[in-house]
Design goal:
transcription regulation; 658 residues; alpha/beta; 8-stranded parallel beta barrel; 4 domains; HTH_AraC; HTH_AraC-typ_CS; Immunoglobulin-like; DNA-binding transcription factor activity; DNA-binding; Jelly Rolls; 25% strand
């Protein structure tokens, strides 16, 4: 038994109406059963993991042949790495969360079975486990932030539990009737009255302080709303089975729960081979990649900040403060931020109004507008002459002149040399400088087809499909990512996952990135969880890279900036015929790693079975994923090793100092 944790292997585990006074991780090793947590029931099968939080009311029913592993963690240790220990309740871990926890859990089990004397290593693994669980609890709370009526009641009671509370006052504060409040408590909690629920919250908050602090129990009781100390002691003992002083005095023994009438299985080499060998084999990564970190490594090239080009149909409706928030929140690390403004020259009066409006708004924020004359061709110029275009440039000239700018940026999608020459010549009548961008047609065109007009073009906007054919023109390439938008559920297509890999693989090729802002605005201004936006998460990963690239291949980009290293890693394969294995990155260095942090995007299949026409053509299509769903997590680096699950993108940042 250890004062900070315990690991027990149990057969036929059955408990009734217990409350946790610590943090528990229950791993279902064999058989089936159910776990009820605060009135919510979870069906458990082999490989499932449940996290129980402080003060959870739970009961466990298991089959006769069921085997479970129970890990009890010290609340004092857990609370160091988790801030969400009051509002969060226990729950069943998702598949992605299991991938994060299981390798650490297997290391702990292996140490307990084979090398119990190595206490320091085991404690280190326990620390890593607490870090992972704390991170997941925070994300779980963030994902379940949509307020229900019970959430509102709970949050109000948490905030006011130190005061004297009356049922009518609570109902009035929450705009509810007494009966509505009673129904919420009766049907959505394990309690029969509001007083029982309030006392439970007060006891939970008091327990936290009893375990964390050294103040007297009496002071803690009064602080949390108990005016009668003797009643507090009775309620506390009824709830937890011990008095507050007993829990504080013997806390080291309480971190390991004792279960009566249950068979305890020894943690030995024999039980390991019987129950965990195949799990260890499953979680062992067969693909290893060594990353050698040396001060003598020569840089391949230097990373230059990328220009950013954004398009938006909604930008016209945002005020200056909203635009400033967007650009600072998302793009603060980019070299320059440009806003592409499309114009329809057939409605010239509208063009003039938009032009003046945009110039005033963007100049105030220091953003550079690019005026996109979409569909401007020789036929239009021959029919309308250059009157409209000429008038537009006059408007631009006076607007830009007021703001002391002597140049203008224009974007065309015409490859006709005559059109380009006419536009450039017209611009030069009003401005000293003309920056011309060309949107390359979405067809199989080669760079040599633009030799005649290349002298006029500052940069080319190309798509992912055109990346490989434009390698020699990388210094003039802007990567257009506007087709990467996901649906409203945050799901993306298989092709877009491939495009993510391409975007990073050819990171050096392009001087800038273009994408639509409209999809991101719903996350910023409509209360949607930003963690669901995998494009933004991936963009932020790439945008952090700085310094020199010291290694690059098909799976990783490794950068170095002074003492800081960053690694962007890919473990992607869309082929359904081949099972992709996990990838383990081994960082080889003699120096200690510090300030290590990481983020991970893991994709799982999200089949869209509504396409009945596809199903009738090919039965195999029923099992092919139309979409992939990404989830963002923050795993830890253990012993200089980082596990990249199949279908994932990871970003690792750390420092090395001698």
């Amino acid at each position: 038994m250890n004062g900070q944790f315990s690991v027990k292997l149990l057969q036929k585990l059955n408990t009734y109406g217990q409350k946790t006074v610590n943090v528990k991780l229950i791993y279902w090793v064999k058989g089936q059963g159910t776990i009820d947590i605060n009135l919510k029931q979870y069906h458990m099968t082999e490989g499932d993991i449940v996290l129980l939080m402080l003060n959870d009311l739970y009961q466990i029913q298991s089959d006769d042949d069921a085997v479970t592993l129970v890990v009890d963690l010290s609340f004092k240790d857990y609370v160091k790495y988790a801030s969400e220990y009051i509002d969060i309740s226990g729950y069943k871990l998702s598949n992605i969360e299991k991938q994060q926890v299981l390798p650490i859990l297997m290391n702990i089990i292996e140490l307990e079975c084979f090398n119990k004397a190595d206490e320091q290593t085991t404690l280190k693994m326990i620390k890593h486990l607490c870090v992972e669980l704390g991170s997941m609890s925070h994300l779980y709370r963030a994902k379940t932030q949509n307020m229900t009526v019970l959430d509102e009641v709970h949050d109000y009671l948490i905030s006011h539990h130190t005061k004297k509370l009356k049922k009518q006052e609570i109902a009035n504060a929450l705009n509810m009737t007494n009966q509505e409040l009673s129904n919420v408590i009766k049907y959505q909690t394990p309690f029969q009255s509001i007083n029982q629920y309030v006392n439970d919250i007060r006891l939970k908050c008091a327990l936290i302080d009893i375990l964390k602090e050294h103040r007297t129990v009496e002071d803690i009781a009064y602080q949390h709303g108990f005016n009668h100390y003797s009643r507090f002691i009775n309620l506390f003992k009824d709830s937890y089975g011990y008095t507050p002083k007993e829990i504080r005095k013997q806390y080291h023994s309480l971190t390991t729960s004792y279960y009566e009438n249950i068979q305890y299985l020894p943690l030995s080499e024999q039980t390991y081979q019987s129950y965990f060998h195949k799990v260890k084999h499953y979680t062992t990564v067969s693909n290893n990649k060594d990353i050698i970190l040396s001060s003598n490594t020569l840089p391949i090239c230097h990373i230059e900040p990328k220009d950013l080009f954004i398009t938006s149909q909604q930008l016209l409706y945002l005020n200056e403060h909203q635009i400033f928030y967007v650009t600072q929140h998302l793009f603060s690390k980019n070299k320059h931020v440009y806003v592409i403004i499309p114009f329809d020259l057939t409605d010239f009066s509208a063009v003039q109004r938009m032009c003046e409006y945009y110039l005033t708004k963007l100049n105030y924020l220091g953003l550079t507008p690019i005026f996109y004359f979409k569909g401007l061709d020789l036929t239009y110029l021959e029919q309308h002459g250059f009157n409209n275009v000429n008038q537009l440039f006059i408007t631009l000239f006076y607007s830009r002149f007021v703001n002391e700018v002597d140049g203008v940026s224009i974007m065309l999608d015409s490859t006709d040399k005559q059109v380009i020459q006419k536009v450039v010549n017209e611009v030069r009548q009003f401005f000293n400088r003309c920056t011309l961008y060309l949107s390359v047609p979405h067809r199989d065109v080669r760079p040599y087809e633009f030799n005649e007009i290349d002298e006029y073009i500052t940069s080319y906007f190309i798509t992912f499909e055109q990346l490989t054919t434009w390698k020699k023109y990388h210094h003039k390439v802007i990567l257009d990512t506007t087709m990467l938008n996901m649906n409203q559920n945050g799901e993306i297509t298989q092709q877009n996952i491939i495009n993510f890999s391409l975007m990073a693989r050819y990171y050096l090729m392009h001087k800038g990135i273009s994408f639509s802002l409209d999809f991101l605005l719903q996350y910023l201004f409509h209360g949607r969880n930003m963690d669901n936006n995998m494009f933004l998460a991936f963009f932020n990963m790439m945008n952090q890279l700085r310094g020199d690239i010291v290694h690059q291949d098909n799976q990783i980009i490794l950068t170095k900036f002074k003492f800081e290293y960053q690694c962007l890693a890919f473990n992607m394969n869309i082929s359904t015929a081949e099972q992709l294995q996990d990838l383990q990155l081994n960082f080889k260095t003699t120096q200690p790693m510090s300030h290590a942090e990481s983020s991970l995007i893991t994709y799982t299949k999200a089949p869209n079975l509504n396409h009945h026409q596809d199903q009738t053509k090919n039965k195999d299509n029923l099992f092919q994923p139309h979409f992939w769903k990404g989830q963002l997590s923050y795993p830890t680096i253990i012993n200089r090793k980082y596990i990249l699950p199949s279908m994932s993108i990871g970003h690792i940042k750390f420092s090395l100092r001698s």
